[in-house]
Each structure stands twice: as C-alpha cells, then as structure tokens.
Amino acid sequence: MTETDTPIEDEAPVEPAEITFSDLGLGDAVLKALRDVGYETPSAIQAATIPTLLGGRDVVGLAQTGTGKTAAFALPIIDRLDLSQKNPQALVLAPTRELALQVCEAFEKYASHLKGVHVLPVYGGQGYGVQLSALRRGVHIIVGTPGRIMDHLDKGTLDLSELQYLVLDEADEMLKMGFAEDVETILAETPDTKQVALFSATMPAAIRRMSKQYLHDPEEITVKAKTTTSASIAQRYLIVSFAQKMDALTRILEVENFDGMIVFGRTKSVTEEIAEKLRARGYSAAAINGDVAQVQRERTVNQLKSGKLDILVATDVAARGLDVERISHVVNFDIPTDTESYVHRIGRTGRAGRSGDAISFVTPRERGLVRAIERATRQELTEMQLPSVDEVNVTRLSRFDDRITAALAETERIDGFRDIVAHYVRNHDVPEVDVAAALAVVAQGESPLLLEPDPAPSARPFRDREDRDRPGRGDRDDRPPRRERTPREGMATYRIAVGKRHRVEPRQIVGALANEGGLRRDDFGAIQIRPDFSLVELPADLPRGTLEKLTDTRISGRLIELRLDTGGPGRRRDDRPRYDERPAKKPRHRSADRDH
C-alpha cells in the first residue's frame, strides 16, 4: 500500500474462514451474548482480528464501515476485562458523537451476560456532571471523542494510568476533522504497555506514521468490502427534511403497490408514534420494539403473516430474524448510521428469490450515509422524488374506480339500490349522475378523495451581504470588493463569534461543532475566518435541539453565539439577535433511549 489516501478496495481481501465465534477463543459469556443478538459466523475482519487481539498483538485494521469492525475490537476487550479494577481499562476514540454512542451501545450489548461492566460515553454536548459522577464510581470502558477526552485530561478528571487497551476507530476521519494533534496527545498520555488497535478505511501517510510511532509490531489486516445486499431488492432513497417524513411516508403508501411493509425507526418512541399516526390515517399498522412483550410480538407478526396487519413499525433489535413472505417493501424512516444495520433491515424483503423494494428517508445532512452504504455494498441507491399530488390523485382515482367496478359485479345488491335511485330521481327531478355523485360523497365521508395541489414555493428575496474577507488577507481598508459566495443547495451560512483575533483555525471549528452538535464531516461547507467572527456553511434544516447545543458551544474558551448570517455588519455584544435569528433557550432533555 502506498503512502497515499488509498481506498481499501485496491487491496487483496482477507477471506473469512468457515468458522464460528466459538472457534475464535472467546469466553462463554460473550458467546451467549452473541447468540442473543443472532450472530452466527464472524465476518472477515472479525475472524482475522479477534484471535490476534486475544493474543495480545497490536492491530492495524483496514476496513470500511459496515464490515463488523466494532465487534472485532469490542469482543476481545470485553472477554479480557478485570471487573475488580475501577480505573478505565479500555479507551475507544471515535470521530463523532454518533459513532461514540453506537460503539458504546455495542459494548453494552456484547457485555449483557457479564455482571458489573460499566461503559461510559464521553462526548461534547453532554454535561460534565454525568461523566464526572460515572468516573468517580468507576468505569471499565470509555468511548469518546478526542475533544472531550482532552478536556478531561486537562482538568485531571480522567486517569488513564492503568489503561490496557486503546482503539482508534475511523482514524482517517479523525485526522480529516483536525483531531491529529489531540489523538497524539492522548496516545502520549497512555501507558507504553497498552495494546493498540487502529481501524481506518484508508491508509494516508499520517496514519502510516502514527501506526509506526505508537503501535508495536502491529499485524495489518485488510478486508475488502463485498456486496451484501440482494440484487433482487430495488434500493431507493428520498431526500426529505425531518419534519416532512410522516407526510412523505403517507404519500409513498398511497402510490406504492405494496403487500406487506416494515417501517424502521431508530428508537422505541419513534416506532410507537409512527404506528399511531398511520392508524389515524386509516392504515392497519402496529409497532414492535424492546418494550413489547414476546407474546404480543408473536401475535403481531402472525397478524402480519395472515394479512390482518399490513404495516409493521419496528426497531432493529425487534425485527431481527423476522422472515415474512409478504413483505414487499422496507422503509427506513430513520436511515441507519452503519451499513450492517442497513443490510439487515432491507434483507427483510426480497427473500428466497423474490423481488423487494427498499426506500430510505435521508435528511440533507445525512447524504454522506448514502455514499457510505453504496461504497460498502458496491450497489448504487437510486434517488427518488416525493410523489406529487397528481401521482397521489391518479392512484386514488384508480382505486376508486376499482371499488366501483367491484360493486357493479355484485348484481343482486345493485338491483335493489337501482330501484331506490330511480325512485329518488322521479320524486326530486335530479339527474342520475348527480345522485351518483352524492352517494360518492356519502361513501367518502369527511376525508376528501383528491388532494389539493401543492402550493407554489414562494420566492425568497436575496439579501445583499457585506463584502467577504478572503483567506490570507490582512485587515486593510483598501482591499477590493469580494466576490459573493452562495451556499450550496441545502446549506445555509451561520455566523460564530470567534475569528482571527481569537486565533481560531478551521479544524477547531469543525471539531467543536461536530462533537457538540453531533454533525458529520459532510455537514460542513466553506469556512471563512474573519477578524472578529467566522462564517460556516451548515445544513439549512438543523434541528432546533442541535442549534441550541451549538449556540452554547465554546471555542478557545469563548461562547460562539451561533446564528444564521443575515449579511449585516457585525453586532456589538449588547446587540443580541432577535428571536427569529437565534433559537430560544429551552431546558435540556436527554434523548430518547435507543432500542439496544
């Protein structure tokens, strides 16, 4: 492999042996947890990595997301934990909050049959109090982002002196996000005797140098991702804002010719909410998740099989092992953040040679997940458009025609009503077609048969913006006017109250906003650093909760006061943005528990 950013598909694959997890040297408690979650045979990266790590050797694993690398490093760590030790024994560094939480959940799942294992996620955006309390009680495994881990090291609240295992997950992403210095500082703070596992999708020169400097005689394991989704499944995705998802689902149900469907939500509460709203719209839908008793789950699945239920709304865990022939469609209401979950979900359709359809809802800031899925599965997802009002109305009219045709076939009942209609026509002097229309109104009820046309999007006036500074220029007043920059589609320009005089760099901005707001690298556009403030392109549809967290973020100890850039001159500190420019402060709430 060269010292360049080489994708792993150019490497020779490591073929998985025909073995089971019990052949890898794992203990009974871990094997029992794997049976609980339905894992039978190890993936290529797991088969090659687990014995190596159990043997005490450092590892450099080159593998894309979705190849099972989390289990590859989590299982050996859990298997060798000393539960009597209070100080952290394992540290996993991840580039984003989402990945840190995902890895943390995986550890908890794999350690379900070991009593007293404590796993702590450490990331920006979460209060220090929760993390400090957990650290004082004792933690075996820490999964965190580099920025917040550095904060704890600087404050002296994190003791890594007894660390035995260190994992760098998605190391190339951490370097791209500007965390190289933080990662090396953390590595230097840990014991030389620790075992290190570094996982990366590519091997740029910086990763190669880091592995040579901090890893001891590592075994390099390369896995080529294979296509793991069935060719019989048509895979599509729809770009839609979070607020539009329910309406988008309803329109898809209107126009898609489906038999049975599974709609996947990320959390228990989301599945319940979707099922309730679908029932209110007249669909036969039910939810299954970790809170649903096994008896009720079996009853619901049987209803789906028999046709008494058309739509099942489920979480990943609840749908594991589900095999129902009539499932023609899978909808990812929330697109999963890892390829393994995506493959598992859409595999509920298109089984045993049958064709199937998979549709994923993707918010503008989740576009990167689509590309990651395509890279890992080697299959392209087709972008679809939200079904238009005309398409929905055509489908509704067709179904209405079918109902009329079916009713006309019931000749005996038709004859009886024909006399009633003729009687009404004679006595009220009303044309038969008007009577038929009136009967259709009675049959339809309060709900209109056809949708109203979508309103035309209102034109948004373009506001002139102040001249923008060009990177590398001084604060001279005689510089020429700067060219206007328009954010790319789906993005908006935000202003933060740190700039050149605060010695801020783009990598600090990306790192802070990514960790505090849970953003991905693909969520960032252009960054322009001015003398007193900076301009950052971010998704235009950032959720209110994310905006609130980012508003309270600090960079270099300074509150960034993030707000939409309106193009006006810089404000004084006592000239606060109006309500419509800055989200109102609300009490913080813990996010809904995930179903893992």
Summarize the structure.
With 596 residues, the chain is of the alpha/beta class.
Textual characterization of the structure:
- InterPro entries: CsdA_RRM (IPR034415), DbpA/CsdA_RNA-bd_dom (IPR005580), DEAD/DEAH_box_helicase_dom (IPR011545), DEAD/DEAH_RhlB (IPR044742), DEAD_box_RNA_helicases (IPR050547), DeaD_dimer (IPR057325), DEAD_helicase_DeaD (IPR028618), Helicase_ATP-bd (IPR014001).
- Belongs to the DEAD box helicase family. DeaD/CsdA subfamily.
- With 596 residues, the protein is α/β, with parallel strands linked by helices.
- It has 4 domains: 8-222, Rossmann fold (3-Layer(aba) Sandwich); 233-387, 3-Layer(aba) Sandwich (Rossmann fold), CATH 3.40.50; 391-444, no CATH class; 463-570, 2-Layer Sandwich (Alpha-Beta Plaits), CATH 3.30.70.330.
- Helix content is 36%, strand content 15%.
- It is built from 19 helices and 20 strands.
- The chain is globular, with a radius of gyration of 28 Å.
- The two termini are 38 Å apart.
- Residues 1-17, 456-484 and 569-596 have low confidence and may be disordered.
Strand content: 5-15%
Oligomer: single chain
The CATH superfamily title of the largest domain = P-loop containing nucleotide triphosphate hydrolases
Shape: globular
**Mind telling me the CATH class of the largest domain?**
Alpha Beta
Radius of gyration: 28 Å
- The count of DSSP E runs of length 2 or more, i.e. the number of strands, is 20
Query: What structural class do you assign from the helix and strand content?
Result: alpha/beta
Low-confidence stretches: 1-17, 456-484, 569-596
Neighbour order of strands in the largest sheet: 3-4-2-5-6-1-7
Number of domains: 4
Tell me the CATH topology of the largest domain. Answer: Rossmann fold
How much helix is in the residues? 25-40%
Main β sheet profile: 7 strands, parallel
Mean pLDDT: 79
The CA-CA distance between the termini, in Å, is 38 Å
Number of helices: 19
CATH architecture name of the largest domain: 3-Layer(aba) Sandwich
